[in-house]
Amino acid sequence: MSLYFQSLRSSSSGNCLLVRTDTTTVLIDCGLSSMKQTREILSQNIKNPKDIDLILVSHLHSDHISFYPMRVIEEHEIKLKVHSGCFDELKNRHFRSYGLANLKVETYYTQKFSVKDLVIEPFEIPHNPYFLTCGFVIYHNDKKIVIATDFRDARNVTDYFKDADFIFIEANHDLQLLRQFPNPNSRFHLPNPKTGAFLSEVITKSKKTPAAVMLGHLSNERNRPHLAIKEIKTAFKKTGIDDDLKVTAAPPYQSSEIVEL
């Protein structure tokens, strides 16, 4: 039985990632701009949104979860899961005056839990100090994928990424473009060189090489897909990693290709 990954949206304007098997469907984040867009994206990529078993929230920034998607999530009676440290703030930040009384919200901790045939392990990553943020290791049989965006420092999380079959990771900005278009919030995100160095470290410490790496959450103004991919490939070349390792960048406003493991 295969494991599938697809980025449905990935940028500073909105994030929504799909992980599924033949029996299980999980979304990582649902930070879309309107109810209409949320309905369209879900219906285009999932036959019946009611078949979504869980929407897992990495953190509470509005490009990862927000009020309008939660209205749609409530309509379809989809379960939403946030870190226990974010539960109270979710309501304070995103419910507005509409109560979302029928929204099904559960909490997770940094411990493994199961969703049908998937095992999910959340782990904390350093992002904005005011927003607890998590990445996720997802296991299915002998396959392992790692998903992590929105973090400023990759130290201390290497072990979660080792021996992955697929990695989805942030490569947020190009340093030269950042100098041209300064943004103080960029300090909360990984630049291309740090992502390349971190991936090189992970792969050289792993017993196996991932089948593919996809770069996500690229800044629309301060990055370009070809720049991010080139930076990662350059880092791989310096450390002797096989140039055949597939590296792609998730489109900001469209769905990516489907990765099958």
How are the strands of the largest sheet arranged? 6-5-4-3-2-1-14
Radius of gyration: 17 Å
What's the tally of helices? 7
Shape: globular
3D architecture notes:
- By secondary structure, this protein is α/β, with parallel strands linked by helices.
- It has 2 domains: 1-112, 4-Layer Sandwich (Metallo-beta-lactamase, Chain A), CATH 3.60.15; 152-251, no CATH class.
- The protein is built from 7 helices and 14 strands.
- The strands form 2 sheets. It has a 7-stranded mixed β-sheet, with no helix packed on it. Strands 7-8-9-10-11-12-13 form a 7-stranded mixed β-sheet, with helices on one face.
- The relative contact order is 0.15.
Fold topology:
Blueprint: E1 4-11, E2 14-20, E3 25-28, H1 35-45, E4 54-56, H2 67-75, E5 79-83, H3 87-94, E6 104-108, E7 113-115, E8 118-125, E9 133-140, E10 143-148, H4 158-161, E11 166-170, H5 175-180, H6 192-204, E12 212-216, H7 225-238, E13 246-249, E14 259-260
Parallel strand pairs: 3-4, 4-5, 5-6, 10-11, 11-12, 12-13
Antiparallel strand pairs: 1-2, 1-14, 2-3, 7-8, 8-9, 9-10
Helix pairs in contact: 6-7
Quick summary of this structure?
The chain has 261 residues and is of the alpha/beta class. It has helices spanning 35-45, 67-75, 87-94, 158-161, 175-180, 192-204, 225-238, and strands at residues 4-11, 14-20, 25-28, 54-56, 79-83, 104-108, 113-115, 118-125, 133-140, 143-148, 166-170, 212-216, 246-249, 259-260. The chain has 2 domains: 1-112, Metallo-beta-lactamase, Chain A (4-Layer Sandwich), CATH 3.60.15.10; 152-251, no CATH class.
